[in-house]
């Protein structure tokens, strides 16, 4: 999924914000692809931001609550990316409005977010089908800590505490943006939002 998001970032983007950057995996890929970019990452977790700073040289980080006004000036970024963060906000409309506020008029917003039918087990099965048996066993052990949280997230989505989106909802968000082929084993939408 991160490589799919990376493929939609314009090569000429000089300032990039990752909203919900976690431990910085996407930012690390961006830095490897274009080390001249000014990279910013925000997350609600100081622990994740610390990990991101260790992964990405020169990364600027801030703790942020995505349900509030984000701590940046209007039209500050050439590109904003957000992978698997929008589903957890209280108001996706407010979240999208904030991303638009922060993006330059000629900029790009790239979002990956779960489909209304998403299941973490499908993502895991897809991964295991692509690796050796030995690697699969090791990955199952490594990923076992993620299984319970993913089951909880799926249950919260069914109860509408989290937002897993259908195609009509995504079309409502994107304006003149575009929906791309599925990502993350077909469990996530990948789309751009017009600033």
Report on the structure:
The chain has 195 residues and is an alpha/beta fold. The protein has two domains: 2-117 and 164-193, Vaccinia Virus protein VP39 (Rossmann fold); 120-155, no CATH class. It is 41% helix and 23% strand. It has seven helices and seven strands, in the order H-E-H-E-H-E-E-H-E-H-H-H-E-E. The chain has helices at residues 2-7, 25-33, 46-55, 92-102, 120-129, 133-158, 167-174; strands at residues 15-19, 38-43, 60-63, 77-83, 103-114, 179-183, 188-193. A seven-stranded mixed sheet has the order 3-2-1-4-5-7-6, sandwiched between helices. Strand 1, helix 2 and strand 2 form a beta-alpha-beta unit. The longest helix has 26 residues, at 133-158. The model has no long low-confidence stretch (mean pLDDT 87).
Show the helix and strand layout.
Elements: H1 2-7, E1 15-19, H2 25-33, E2 38-43, H3 46-55, E3 60-63, E4 77-83, H4 92-102, E5 103-114, H5 120-129, H6 133-158, H7 167-174, E6 179-183, E7 188-193
Parallel strand pairs: 1-2, 1-4, 2-3, 4-5
Antiparallel strand pairs: 5-7, 6-7
Task: Briefly say what this structure is.
With 195 residues, the chain is of the alpha/beta class. 33% of the residues are buried.
């Amino acid at each position: 999924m991160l490589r799919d998001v990376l493929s939609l970032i314009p090569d000429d983007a000089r300032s990039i914000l990752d909203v919900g950057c976690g431990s910085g995996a996407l930012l690390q890929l961006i830095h490897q692809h274009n080390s001249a970019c000014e990279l910013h990452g925000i997350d609600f977790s100081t622990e994740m931001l610390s990990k991101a700073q260790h992964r990405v040289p020169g990364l600027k980080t801030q703790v942020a609550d995505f349900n509030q006004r984000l701590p940046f000036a209007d039209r500050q970024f050439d590109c904003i990316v957000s992978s698997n963060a929008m589903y957890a906000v209280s108001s996706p409309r407010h979240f999208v409005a904030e991303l638009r506020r922060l993006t330059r008029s000629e900029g790009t917003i790239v979002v990956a977010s779960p489909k209304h039918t998403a299941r973490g087990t499908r993502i895991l099965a897809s991964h295991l089908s692509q690796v050796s048996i030995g690697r699969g066993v090791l990955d199952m052990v490594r990923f076992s800590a993620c299984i319970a949280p993913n089951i909880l997230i799926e249950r919260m989505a069914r109860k509408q505490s989290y937002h897993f989106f259908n195609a009509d909802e995504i079309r409502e968000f994107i304006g003149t943006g575009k929906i791309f082929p599925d990502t993350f084993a077909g469990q996530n939408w990948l789309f751009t939002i017009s600033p």
